[in-house]
Amino acid sequence: MTDPLYIERDGHRTWLKWHRGRRKASDPAFTGARILEAMRLGASVEVDLVIHADHGCAVLHDKTLDRETTGTGLVRETGAASLRQLYLRAADGSPLPDRVLLLEDLCDLLGQNPPHPDALLQLDFKEDLAALDDLTVENFALAVSAFKRNIIVSGGAFDAISLLTNSTPGLMNGYDPCYGASLEQLRATGDHETFIQNALRTAPDAAFIYLHHEIVLAADNAGFDMIAAVHAAGRKVDAWTINHVNSTTISQVTRLLALRVDQITTDDPEGLAAALDT
């Protein structure tokens, strides 16, 4: 089977991003083995970051430990040594043999297993600016500096993302406007053009704009090409997240490909690539 890295249609390449380090739907999230596989192959892969008690970041989505790990309580109140003793959980809640990774642990693994030049690791920061202090920013920079050409930092709080990326010159960033007040305003007004122009102004140096795929398709149905607007500003679009591969999502993805989206976030890159290989 061909590795699920991208889809090419009409001379345009659309990357398939391995959401939370998953190659296929049955994979658990955030396992080091899958993340390293993606980076070795030259894939685009995304993991989440939350801050822990020792001024660093854990590779987790939730700010609490109970659902994703064998621990309990807040990540923010748990130290690095304790986090490293915890195991990840599968989707059904059963413990896995894989331990929780900290950002520096993941970067150490990349040091031992050099990534493909085309690989892109998206660090999706789940906190806001208020959660950052100088030591956390310093520790972030120490962890990622050796791999800055293969990393992009993203999130919905662009002031926080800017602080992190500015700590490491040459590190890329991306912005997701599909949260909070801007999203509520879009839902109220249906003004897709203003929504995307505001996003571009908010994040003037973002390499990627991350957009919920249903927002992109709703704009398309209303006669506005949101992807073309981002391309006109010299940026790229990631459409997130295709959780399952079925007739509905295949139809959605087919339209996204026709609109020349640059990247599609999916929990099942392998299944999506297979379904589109016709």
UniProtKB/TrEMBL annotation:
Q: Name one GO biological process term.
A: lipid metabolic process
Entry's Gene Ontology molecular function annotations: phosphoric diester hydrolase activity
The GP-PDE domain extends over 33-270
- Which top-level group of life is the source organism from? Bacteria
Pfam families, alphabetically?
Answer: GDPD
Record's signal peptide: none
Q: By its UniProt entry, which SUPFAM superfamilies does this protein fall under?
A: PLC-like phosphodiesterases (SSF51695)
**Entry-linked PANTHER family:** GLYCEROPHOSPHORYL DIESTER PHOSPHODIESTERASE, GP-PDE DOMAIN-CONTAINING PROTEIN
* Protein name from the UniProt record: Glycerophosphodiester phosphodiesterase
The scientific name of the source species is Devosia chinhatensis
Q: What is the lineage of its organism?
A: Bacteria, Pseudomonadati, Pseudomonadota, Alphaproteobacteria, Hyphomicrobiales
